Amino acid sequence: MVITPIIYILVVALCSASISYTISMAGIFKWLREWIDKTFPDKISELVHCPYCLAHYVILGIMFTTTHVRSYLIPISDSVIYNFLFTWFVIVCLVSLLHFIMLRTYAPVALLETHRLFKKNKVTPKN
User: 20 to 30 A from 96, CA-CA: which of 18, 20, 30, 124?
Assistant: First the structure.
């Protein structure tokens, strides 16, 4: 299979959106977020609670570990650095759109979970 820059961008965007959303929002990684809150109370703590912020670093990690990444960059310049940065932010843009879709999709689930926790703790939510 030939991987073109467009396919590479879409695959990295889908993968990094899923990874960053799962780490920053899902209950399975709550322990990691709590540990980071205690260990690094400043900016790093904010990083793991924001899918958009975390996605920047997830994308960089994927791009730096991709073999022959030069062949997957959007060729808009003779500069590899410029092409790398441009491709990185194109992927960030797509990831932010995917996060919007994910947040909208899981909003009803989050609402039900909130009501379940209130009911479990016998607390009524204030409107």
Answer: 30
Task: Kindly report the number of other CB atoms within 10 A of residue 36's CB atom.
Answer: 18
Q: Where do the domains of the chain lie?
A: 5-120
User: pLDDT (tens digit, 9 = 90+) per residue, 70-127?
Assistant: 888 888 989 999 999 999 999 999 999 999 998 888 888 778 877 777 777 766 656 5
Q: Which residues contact 84 (CB under 8 A, 6 or more apart)?
A: 63, 69, 73
